Amino acid sequence: MFEILKPKVYVNSIYNIDLKKLKKMKKIRGIIVDLDNTLVAWGKNEINQRVIDWVKEAKKLELKICIVSNTNSKRVEKYAKILNLPYYSKLFKPFSISFINGLKILNTRKNETVVIGDQIFTDILGGNRLKLFTILVTPIINRDAIGTFPQRTLERIIISFWLKRGIIKKEVGNWP
Ligand SMILES: [Mg+2]
């Protein structure tokens, strides 16, 4: 059920993703990553040093990263600058155009690109549609834009249904 919404992998946070192995075992070269509640807490104006280090580590491994976000451009621009990353921010997720632009910026092929995000209706749906490798993370905080409330509720129901049936499981420790 809801196959198109299902992430390939479900982890607690970006820190549970072993970038070295991702590159070596999955032949990944590019990362399309969501901003709010994936890299930074929604509505907050601070960034964790750990995120900065995570991006540095990815760069050291020659993984290319692009932020693709539905959040207003100014906010995305600010964090993209801090992290020194390219970004694409138009309210287009889950439409393919967002991810296609991400791929263009990264200059990577679909089969060597991963999408990391906290929402199945935007990040995962969009990534799966283009057959990118999709990784779902738990949102950093439980709050989100008011308009996403119905979607968030449905999302929680679907994820707990999957977990109960063993359709997906949350990877413990580092993946892969
Ligand atoms: Mg998000």
Describe the structure.
- With 176 residues, the chain is of the alpha/beta class.
- It has one domain: Rossmann fold (3-Layer(aba) Sandwich).
- It is built from six helices and six strands, in the order E-H-E-H-E-H-E-H-E-H-E-H.
- The chain has helices at residues 19-26, 49-60, 73-83, 96-106, 120-129, 149-165; strands at residues 9-11, 30-33, 64-69, 87-89, 113-117, 133-137.
- A six-stranded parallel β-sheet has the order 1-6-5-2-3-4, sandwiched between helices.
- Helix 5 (120-129) links the parallel strand 5 and strand 6 (133-137).
- The longest helix has 17 residues, at 149-165.
- It starts with 8 loop residues before the first strand and ends in an 11-residue tail after the last helix.
- The model has no long low-confidence stretch (mean pLDDT 94).
- The structure holds magnesium ion.
- Magnesium ion is lined by residues 34, 36-38, 117-119.
What structural class results from the helix and strand content?
Answer: alpha/beta
Low-confidence stretches: none
Strand content: 5-15%
Q: What is the first-to-last residue Cα distance? A: 25 Å
Task: Report the helical percentage.
Answer: 25-40%
| N to C succession of SSEs | EHEHEHEHEHEH
Q: Which ligands does the model contain, each kind named once? A: magnesium ion
> How many individual domains?
1
CATH H level: which superfamily?
A: HAD superfamily/HAD-like
The number of helical elements comes to 6
Q: Kindly report the average pLDDT value.
A: 94
Q: In the CATH hierarchy, what is the architecture at level 2?
A: 3-Layer(aba) Sandwich
Task: Please count the beta strands (DSSP E, at least 2 residues each).
Answer: 6
The CATH class: Alpha Beta
Determine the CATH topology. Answer: Rossmann fold
Radius of gyration: 15 Å
Approximate shape: globular
Q: What does the largest sheet look like?
A: 6 strands, parallel
